[in-house]
Design brief:
9 strands; seven-stranded antiparallel beta sheet; single chain; mainly beta; 60s Ribosomal Protein L30, Chain: A
């Protein structure tokens, strides 16, 4: 690891692993399908990107005051402008933490935490595996979130 990064606790260096590309099945839940792909590929650490469109969507916003997620539901078709996330371990299982930006036909954009309940119309995926000890998520006492360890 670069010695200049040693002052940043919890940063980890990786080697690139396999890159997987493909299209997820239509009418399935986007987050569940992404997670199934990662599990089937036996990837514990990496990055995932998705482009395409959804039939409907559920986005989360983490309220820092209440330390709870608030959800927005969109019951109409939207384009995936960008969806990206990381892959790490939570309770020994691969977990995807992804954010998504969606656009409607008027050019309005909506973004937030990708939540279950987002139905795929078209989803093209690029999945990059990282080789090395995976990041592990632990509960952060202040936020209640499962975050990467800083040690």
């Amino acid at each position: 690891m670069n010695t200049e990064l040693e002052k940043f606790k919890g940063f980890t260096g990786y080697q690139p692993g396999q890159i997987i590309t493909g299209r997820l099945p239509r009418n399935q839940d986007l987050l569940k399908s992404m997670t199934e792909l990662v599990q089937d590929a036996e990837i514990e650490s990496g990055f995932i990107k998705v482009l395409g469109a959804v039939r409907n969507a559920r986005l989360g916003y983490f309220n820092q005051k209440t330390t709870d997620y608030e959800y927005l539901d969109f019951n109409h078709p939207l384009e995936i402008i960008h969806c990206g996330g990381n892959i790490s371990l939570l309770n020994g299982e691969p977990m995807i933490h992804a954010h998504i930006v969606l656009g409607d036909q008027q050019g309005q954009a909506y973004g937030g935490h990708l939540a279950e309940g987002t139905e795929i119309y078209v989803a093209e995926v690029v999945l990059q595996e990282f080789i090395g000890d995976p990041q592990v998520r632990l509960e952060d006492p202040e936020s209640g979130l499962s975050l990467w360890s800083t040690s």
